[in-house]
Amino acid sequence: DDDTFSDVFCEKSKKLINVHLFALAAQYYTLSNLGVSTPLEALLEALRGDNQRTTGIKTDEFMNNKKSHEVQVMSELVDNIAKYCGIKQVIDIGSGKGYLSSFLSMQYNLKVYGIDSSDTTTNGARERNRKLKKHWRAYQSRARANIETQRLEKGNNRPVQSEMNCKAINEELLNRTSSLQHQDQVTIQDVVPACSFTETATSETSKQTVVDLAAQKQSDESKLSEEVLAILNVLPADAVEVFSSSQSNCGELSQEEKEQRKIASLQAKASKSSESNLYFPLTSCITAETELSDIITDLEDCIMVGLHTCGDLAANTLRIFTAKPEIKAVCSVGCCYHLLSEQFENQEDCPEEVWGFPMCQYLKDRGWCCGRNARMSACLALERVAVGQMLPTESLFYRAVLQVIIEDIYGVTKSDRHVGKTFSKSSSFIDYVRKSLKKLELDDSKVPDSCIMDYYEKYKHRMNELEAFNMLKVVLAPCIEVLILLDRLCYLKEQDNIAWSGLVKLFDPVKSPRCYAVIALKKQSSF
Predict the structure, then answer these.
(1) What is the DSSP letter of 195?
(2) Is residue 410 assigned to a domain?
(3) Relative to the CA of 50, which of 42, 127, 207, 278 has its CA 20 to 30 Å away?
């Protein structure tokens, strides 16, 4: 209760006097402790109903560990939401390089439009698709060779008795299967299951063997697909060319078998046609007023997703979802809270402006403001620090001293320019300051090396103080993130057309610190 935490700060000075209570209070106001989030497994179970979980393919060959983890988990959830809503179209906002988009299209056969504001990123995604498609046949050949080797090894290791039994196959069966053997370039012992026949083989046995042959062939093709997908795991769908089975000699097949093969062929062609262009990278800047139908000409009932949508884009994703009847569900994981625009931060009177925070009416009525420093803190990763991935104290110290130099020497307190990752490219503090001043377009000749080092020596003894301060910010980070996420959830709860909405922890926070998704489904009347 409030009394428990009343002694965290001094009543008069407002200074922190009890670090232990501060940490306990911060822990109390985290999402995991407040009990307002929905477990991922519980949501998946509700969406699946009686359907079994599908086995996915690995995603770690063309993505780093973090991205692989995110794409694997989120794509499974999105697929289950799409199935629950009975939709096949997905709009991926802020799609970037298209990792999530391509995996959704390939693994789950969903039609995905990936929208990103950067032409460079979109073109990069297209180029990546082109290169992967160029190497597709090589991967395909290698996978076929691997399957063939496995077949031969398996055949060579069979017991002698199996070979003796295979000799008992009647001539009719040999004729019936000869074309298949020729087309696939395999031996009899590779396509005929061992011990399937005896010396007294009957026509019933022969019929059963044809079924076994078909099953074996299907199994081989399935293994081939799995082998290739294991290599190409995140290959976008428009880079995938469906394997075309060789046309076999149908003269010796029954009419029923001919019809079955004809139907299978038509289905394969239809599948190839529908799957050949399932991922479409597009370039567009998305705002709350964006008309999706202007960007996507064949817009239909769909689900909108966003994996680490930056700043206001996460808020605008939710606004578009609530406003557009075609969008039946949303799954949004935001990031970059420091880039959010705030309605009450600068006390500007802009009632018509669309802000990133706050979204819900409850906080708007109270004029709630976080401020940039708090939002910067919300981006920190407590779980990573807890497992030993410490903050970059030295680079933070460099940045802090640089700011003092700029204010003292140049009188600059604000700038639209950024220092960026200068620290990693600098050999010393002097080198860091000079490179940073050039990036900020400030005349570095005003500051001699001796002056730069004087500032460094003046504040060096406060580095531990800076580290302690940043650790307090890390402890507080989840509380500020809770405020931002609950604001978005409350916004959805205020809408009349939402059937269900919730916060779901999707990712391992050590691998992916921004791990909570805002998820919502519209009412059935909206479907």
Answers:
(1) T
(2) yes
(3) 278
